Amino acid sequence: MNKQELIASIADVAGLSKGDAIKAVEAVFDTITSSLKRGDEVRMVGFGTFSVTKRKASTGRNPRTGEPMTIKASTQPKFKAGKGLKDACN
Questions:
Q1: pLDDT tens digits, 9-32
Q2: Is 7 exposed, middle or buried (0-12, 13-18, 19+ CB in 10 A)?
Q3: Could you tell me the pTM of the whole model?
Q4: How far is the C-alpha of 78 from the C-alpha of 83, rounded, in Å?
């Protein structure tokens, strides 16, 4: 399912217009993104938790040339599925 299919499904299930569903989906994504940018955790009981982890700088290899290269430190988003989501998939 891509973003447009998600929006169409939400519009159907919630009885919203497609425009309202677009606003709702964008608002959820923007809120989660801004919370993660601040370093906060977004916890949705039964669904899962979005969080941020810090990765240290490391040394890797360029796959084309095999030469060593430095991979800079970064902050990565992470998602851990909750029990309700795991149970729904099994």
A1: 999 999 999 999 999 999 999 999
A2: buried
A3: 0.79
A4: 16
Residue type, 29: F
Per-residue model confidence as pLDDT tens digits over 37-53: 999 999 999 999 999 99
State both tokens at 68: 């060593």
Report the DSSP pairing between strands 58-61 and 68-71: antiparallel
What is the C-alpha separation between 42 and 34, in angstroms, rounded?
10
- DSSP states along the chain: --HHHHHHHHHHHHT--HHHHHHHHHHHHHHHHHHHHTT--EEETTTEEEEEEEE--EEEE-TTT--EEEEPPEEEEEEEE-HHHHHHH-
